[in-house]
Every structure is written in C-alpha cells, then in structure tokens.
Amino acid sequence: MSTVTTEWAGERPPTRSWYRSALGLMFGARTLREGVHLLLNFPLALTAFVFTVTAMSVSAGLLVTFVGLPLLCLTLIATRGFGMVERARARGLLRMRVAEPAPLLSRSERRGFFVWMGAVLRSGSCWRSVVYALMHLPWAVITFSLVVAFWSAGLGALTYPVWFWTLPEGDRVGVNVDGQGGGWVWDGPLELILAPLLGALVLLAAGWLIRGMAVVDRLLVSGLLGPSSDESRVRELETGRSRVVDTSAADLRRIERDLHDGAQARLVALAMDLGLAKEKLTEDPETAARMVDAAHGEVKLALQELRDLARGIHPAILTDRGLGPALSAVASRCTVPVTVEADLDGRPAAAIEGIAYYTASELLQNVSKHSRARAATLDVWRAGERLMLQVTDNGVGGASTGNGTGLAGLAERLEAVDGMLAVSSPQGGPTAVTAVLPWRERDAA
Questions:
Q1: Are the CB atoms for 144 and 36 separated by under 8 Å?
Q2: 61 Cβ partners below 8 Å, 6+ apart?
Q3: How many CA atoms lie within 13 A of 219 on its CB side?
Q4: 376-383 sheet: strands from edge to edge
Q5: What is the per-residue pLDDT for 40?
Q6: According to the model, what pLDDT value does residue 38 have?
Q7: Cα 362–312–242 angle (5° rounding)?
Q8: Same-domain check for residues 324 and 285
Q9: What's the CA gap between 8 and 428, in Å, rounded?
Q10: What's the start-to-end Cα distance of the chain, in Å?
Q11: What integer pLDDT is reported at residue 4 of this predicted model?
Q12: Residues 6+ positions from 394 with CB-CB distance below 8 Å
C-alpha cells in the first residue's frame, strides 16, 4: 500500500473571479507552458520516430552479422537518452516529476561489454522508450495541429479590429451569401466587436483543450518513460528499509543516552554514597544511617528510571494484555483527558502492535505539548485487513507533516511498513490524525 499523507493547515484560499479565471485559461503561465510543450511534441517526436524506425530496421537487418546486436543495443541506449530528454521537458513545461528508471547495472554487478549488452537487452525502460517513440508521433501530429489551429484562429479573431484594414476590401473576412461575391463582410462596427468576442471564445476552448491534451502527455510520460511498478516497489522497499535502520539506530542511541545520563549516573553516585556510609558506619553511625536512607531513596529513583526505560523499549502490558489495555495505560499518563475506544476482534502481529502503540504514544504527547486541548479521544479498530488508529482533540489545530516535525518522522515510520498517516488540522481546530497499518495475523506461538 502506498503512503499518502494529507494535511489541511489553514483556511481554503479565496476563489478567483470569473474573468481572472478566464484570462488565466487563455493566457496564463500554465496554458502557455503546456501549449509550448504540445507544439514541441511534433519536431521532437518526428526526430525520435525517424531515428528509431531507421536504427531498429538497420539493426534487425544486421542481426545475422556480428554488428547487428551491438547496433541494436546502441539504438536502445539512444532511445533511453531520448526518454531522459522527454522527462526533463515534462519537468520544465508540465511541472511533473517522473522518477528516473533504474540504472542498467547496479554497483554490485560486474562490468564488461557482454554484461552491458545483456543488461541493455533486458532493460524494460529501454524497450518502453522505443514504444514511446513509435506511439508519440501520431499523438504529436494531433496536438501540434490543434494548438496551431486554435491559437491562430483565436488570436487572429481577437486582434482582427487592429489589422483588418490592411487587407484589400475583397479579401476581408466575411460570409459569401449569394455565391457571387456578395454578402456579409466583417468590417462594420458590430462585426469588429463580435470578432474579438469570437476570438476570446476560441482561446477559452483552446485553454481547455490544451489542458486536456497535456493530461494525456503526462500519462504517456509517466507510463512509458518512468520506472515500472516493480522498480517503484523495489525503491519503496529500499527506502522503507533505510528508514527502519535509521529509526532503529536512533532508538539505540536514545536508550544508550538515557542509560548513561540517567540510571547509570545515579547508580554510580549511589555506589559512592554507600562506600562513604560504610566508612562512617563505625565512627558515626547516625550519619551513616542518614546516608543509607538517602541511598535508599536513590535506589527507588533508579528503579523508576529503569522501569520507564523498559516501558519505552516495550511495555509489559502490551505483551501480556494487548493493544487495548496498553493504550488505556498510555492515555492515563496524558495531561489532557483522553477517552479510549478499542474495537478489536483479535491481536495483530507483535511488530504491528508495537508500532501502533508507539504511534498512539507520540500522538498523545503532541496533544499534551502543543494542542492546548481540553479533551481528546483515542480510537482503534480493525477495518478488513487494516488496523486503524485515530487521535482527535479540540485544540488550536495547525498540525502539519512538514519536514522537520514529529509527524513527518511518524509518517515515514508508518510508510516503512506499508502504512499511511492522514492529518486534518485546520487553524483553530479540531485536529484528527489517522494512522493506517496493515493487519498481519499474530503467530500462533
């Protein structure tokens, strides 16, 4: 399951007036960018089509010789390079980001000419680039023709009152009514008003047409020139694995720091105090008794710190009683009154249970620290093959998953196990954070 993070962090932007929208559709930056992209389709697609057909034909004809296969590989590499140009053009003009396909050879693979040829021939991105070059030309002819026709007609009609007088009287725009040259000619005041209106309508239609055709171009680029679904899945897994490793390393550093700065330092001081008390036991029993009493208090504090640390690693109540009671326990430590609702017909895998517990803990900490809420709710339930967890509060809102926030790290941790985090937090509240985790059955053992 792909991770989708949604956030609402403010009021809806004000809507533009109709004439601003119309002008944007006719002459806006997006329309101009996408229109230029569609115009460039034809020369680039024609070049790629001619090269691909010629090179593939020559390569196929020479396959019976020793130069055919290397020439075919070079052709595939060239079409792959053309795909790189198309992705760059889509980034610049269509404002879309398409991930680069996987490299032909990984760093761990050995190098060599024949290894390289095998990698090229097996590369799905190279063959998809060939398909793109062959399919794109017919579509490029359509887009080029329509954009040229609509923009020419629209701009010509829109500016007709400015330049119509330069035409000879017999060549001016009009409608031949009687078939003998007589009829309605566009040179009167009414016609000079209607012509720009007609041109504006044509440019409006051109704007909608350009945006619709740009959607098709985006689909072609993303479907044929981007990474395949398998490659994307491998990248997601690699990214998730690296995030899990980084998170685990950070947790280990945190535990080491807590032990070093907390319980360990307290136990060292306790050992020194007991050593001094032992020396004073015969000389000054009263002072030694006070020192032993103080050491007893230090032992209690050290034990409490160790319990808190153990609870942070994996709470015993989660192992013994499950997610519902564990969430009730963590909710009781929140500074805001929390209502807990758990509707689970079983227990998920221990790893999923632990992630859900720590997700709820971090969300409730955010409620305590930042929300300024008077009440909160914590709901957990099973929905099909998903474990759902939601924390809501009536605080000030404004929560965001932007980079550098705790919610961003939480979203990455959920993504590593095919989960997702959805945040609804408009300014002024309320805030609702929903975590979705895959439900994996618990081992019978």
A1: no
A2: 68
A3: 8
A4: 7-8, 420-424, 431-438, 386-393, 376-383, 338-343
A5: 93
A6: 93
A7: 70
A8: no
A9: 12
A10: 27
A11: 36
A12: 373, 374, 375, 376, 429, 430
Q: Is 379 helix (H, G, I), strand (E, B) or coil?
A: strand
Mean pLDDT of 362-385: 86
Vertex 352, ends 231 and 257: CA angle to 5°? 95
> How confident is the model over 122-137, as pLDDT tens digits?
888 888 899 999 999 9
Rounded to an integer, what distance in angstroms lies between the CA atom of residue 240 and that of residue 261? Answer: 31
Residue 260 sits in a domain whose CATH number is 1.20.5
Token code pair at residue 228? 């395949």
One domain for residues 69 and 190: yes
Strands (E), 293-384: 338-343, 376-383
Place of tokens 């227990």: 347
In this predicted model, what pLDDT tens digit does every residue of 160-211 receive, in sequence order? 788 776 766 555 555 433 344 444 455 567 777 888 888 889 999 999 999 9
Two tokens at 435? 């975590």
Tell whether 347 and 402 lie within a shared domain: yes
Q: In angstroms, rounded to a whole number, what is the distance separating the alpha carbons of residues 133 and 221?
A: 11
- Decide if 3 is inside a domain: no
pLDDT at 106 over 70: no
Tens digits of per-residue pLDDT, 294-341? 777 777 777 766 666 555 556 677 777 888 888 888 888 888 888 888
β pairing state of 431-438 and 183-185: unpaired
Statement to judge: residues 431 and 364 lie in one domain: yes
Q: Domain limits at 361?
A: 317-438
Residue 255 backbone phi and psi in degrees, to 5: -65, -40
Is residue 264, in this structure, part of any structural domain at all?
A: yes
User: Is the torsion defined by CA of 242, 245, 247, 250 positive or negative?
Assistant: negative
According to the model, what pLDDT value does residue 224 have? 87
Q: How many domains does the chain have?
A: 3
Q: Is the pLDDT of residue 441 over 50?
A: yes
Average pLDDT over residues 408-428: 81
Taking the C-alpha atoms of residue 227 and residue 100, their distance in angstroms, rounded to an integer, is 6
In a domain, residue 4? The reply is no
Within 13 Å of residue 215, how many CA atoms lie on the same side as its CB? 5
pLDDT reading at 381 higher than 60: yes
Out of 267, 291, 313, a domain closes at 313
The pLDDT of residue 139 is 94
- How far is the CA of 245 from the CAs of 97, 183, 253, 339, in angstroms? 27, 81, 12, 34
